[in-house]
Amino acid sequence: MATSQGAEVRLTGICRSYGDAQVVSDVNLRASGGEILALLGPSGCGKTTTLRMIAGLVQPSAGEITIDGASVTGLPVHRRNLGMLFQNYALFPHLTVLENVAFGLTMRGVSRAETARLALQALDLVRLTGFGDRMPAALSGGQQQRVAMARAIVYRPRVLLLDEPFGALDKKLREEMQIELRQLCNELGLTTILVTHDQEEALVLADQIAVMRGGCIEQVAAARAIYERPVSHFVADFIGTSNFLPAGIVERTGGRTVLRNAQGLVFESTVANDFTAQDRVAVAIRPESVKLTPGVAPAAANTLTGTIRRSLFKGQIISVWMEIGEGTEIVVSVPIEQAGTTKPEPGEVWTARWSQERTLVVREQ
Amino acid sequence: MNETVSPLLKVVVGIILLIVVAPLVVPLLMSISDTPFIVFPPQGFTLKWYGAVLANPEARASFLFSLELAAIVTGVSLLLGVPCAAGLTRFKLPGQDAILGLILSPLIVPLIVTGVALLQLFAMLGSRATLLQLVIGHTVVCLPYVIRSVSASLLLVNRNLEDAASVLGAPPHIVATRVIWPQVRPGILAGGIFSFIVSFDDYPISMWLADGNHFPVPLYLYTVIERSFDPSIAAIASLMIFFALLLVLVIEKVFGLSLARLAS
């Protein structure tokens, strides 16, 4: 199958309300050609509604959606030329696998012979050669997922929309399918917009991640950037885990921010941020950024001393909880290789340190 | 499909089936009795009563009329019932429950009361159109069956499939014919067959509305019982049972299989 050039999708001021409930408010997004964009957020954050508005299955109350610069806001679903994968695949149970895949081509008036050729080719592409005559019910979850994939891409849509596509698969199969999907989208150069509540899925699949919360976009950034530079408590908490220590900005010099919390602990960060001394912020530290050493260390920036409370074996890492005063605990990940030589035991006093580059400053809500 | 069924369940289902089916066997056995009157258990074996019934022009006329009536009633019930079911399941309307209750009320009110009420209505209107009256009367009774079974199948329709079809480029009329229709077809077929059987078997409505030229089989059967008591009555009853059985087999063949395919 020849590579098609994915279209640019742009959402400007998109809103949607049901009665008094504002489900999506003022969403601005852009997915450039060939890019994979993930809408990530907890259930009820408006991500699926946003996707359905792009598909045309839901009409926005306000705002505009353009595909390759042309407005599609009033265009009916069936004329948008998009591909979509649904949560439960939505294969037509009364049609064979091949008929399912051919459906979009038939709707486009492609000749019979060409339809058969392209549909078989699409089945080859998703590695389901020879499954054409089966009924969807006779296939496993992963196979149904691939049929849905073939059906969505066979007519080379401008944009591929995915609604929690791997939710029904078990973990191992899900990971396989994610890698397959990513390869397929890159091969076809498809612009892909993905809805998921699974941060790992978003990190694996997406070039850009838009984190949504309560109908609004919280942050849009490249997958890695959003992990390394979350702007808010919510994002830092939703993508990966973090320890949050509320603090105030006391000094900004060049690329360096100095913060102090109520207990007088000082934090220094060289991670870029736009906050001022007036903003309510917190220091966020990833459990894997922290290094533990036994005993008490002299007071310094980005250094905490505390008592180990408990630890939990998690496979590659051991999670250690350390109390740093008045019921405040931080969690630290100790890689399993290091835990052999230095293993913190409950009751012991240890010191936690982390670098300026790993000190995140996020907006508190 | 390959779950093990407990023996107790088998026994209970067997007993229920026996209770339901056993009475139907009685007229079948009586109809082959070689005696001038109905006896049970039958004595001897003959098919002459079937011959007598089929040769009787009155019986044939009644049978054909019942077929005609049931066919018209089924058509009208589907024509009214399918859009009604679609409206009731697809849209949120004010007074929806009241509308549904009104439509289903003939199932609750004794049929004989419905029949009398219709007779009075037609008498007040001065109507002489017996066929039309029978069609209206039967449709009132058959409509609930159509609406119930079509609504049930419409509620089971997977809305995701409609979304998927439109995204794939299917305009609304194609979505209706290629995606919705295959899913609701079993419900419509079942509603149609129910309606046919209900109309074909109806006595209490026809009793008030029929006349000598429009005389359905159940009425004919009753008059024959009053006139004589030979096994031809059992033969007529048996023919009606065979006919209903045939329709049930059609349901099983056409829609039983497609249901299994959708459910699997």
Kindly list the characteristics that best describe this protein.
heterodimer, A: 365 residues, alpha+beta, Rossmann fold, OB fold (Dihydrolipoamide Acetyltransferase, E2P), 6-stranded mixed β-sheet, 5-stranded antiparallel β-sheet, 20 strands, 24% helix, 34% strand, B: 264 residues, mainly alpha, globular, disordered C terminus
Number of helices of chain B: 11
Classify the secondary structure makeup of chain A into a structural class.
alpha+beta
Distance linking N and C termini of chain A = 48 Å
Please write the CATH class name of the largest domain in chain A.
Answer: Alpha Beta
Q: Which chains have the largest interface?
A: A-B, 30 and 21 residues
The separation of the N and C termini of chain B measures 9 Å
Count the E strands of chain B: 0
CATH class designation of one domain in chain B = Mainly Alpha
Largest β-sheet summary of chain A: 6 strands, mixed
* Radius of gyration of chain B from CA coordinates: 22 Å
